[in-house]
Amino acid sequence: MITVVESSFLASASALSQTPPPKNSEVVFIGRSNVGKSTLINLIVDSKGLAKSSSTPGKTQLINYFETIWKRGEERIPLWLVDLPGFGYAKVSKEMRKDWGEKLIHFLQERRSIKLFVQLIDARHPDLAIDAEAWAMIGAIKRGDQKAIRVFTKMDKLNRNDQKKLQQRYPDACFTAMLGKEGIDSVRERVLKDVLGEEA
After folding, report:
1. Strand 75-83 versus strand 25-31 pairing type
2. Which domain holds residue 65?
3. What CATH number should be reported for the domain holding residue 177?
4. In the β-sheet with 174-175, what is the strand arrangement from edge to edge?
5. pLDDT tens figures, 55-79
């Protein structure tokens, strides 16, 4: 069983130049505003208030770093979790969206310590063009030593039939419910396996 035994806020940055010097492997969480990034991070580390979401979607424009220690058996593995600002919020100006998009892409391309991209997608809206574009962008910039996974959130909002259809469409994805901890163990296992470069 994999657990996260330590977690703490490390730093915030508004650009690559402000990020902390690379020390540990990093897991980056990407997704639209209100998809549940902060909630998922808190569930992964088993802490209710580590990652804080803004009350105004699209307002937070910072890259937030969290320092964590994962435990598997007697093995202790340090990882940094990186919460990126949500994208696609309509009330953010076009200029800000363009500027921040360029900053994020620059960060994702140049931050060599990133080992895993985790894209969150709302299970109720699995076919949005903006999510497809984000996944394509990740694929275009991903290096050979990096991996990417999709995590569908809010599965508890779908009926059983629709859940099954989505799981069949995306057999390599992870699926979570925001209420309770359903699917969190599988996310932890997948994250650690991909960061360490282990085979399934």
Report:
1. parallel
2. 2-196
3. 3.40.50.300
4. 2-13, 63-72, 75-83, 25-31, 114-122, 147-153, 174-175
5. 555 545 789 999 999 999 999 999 9
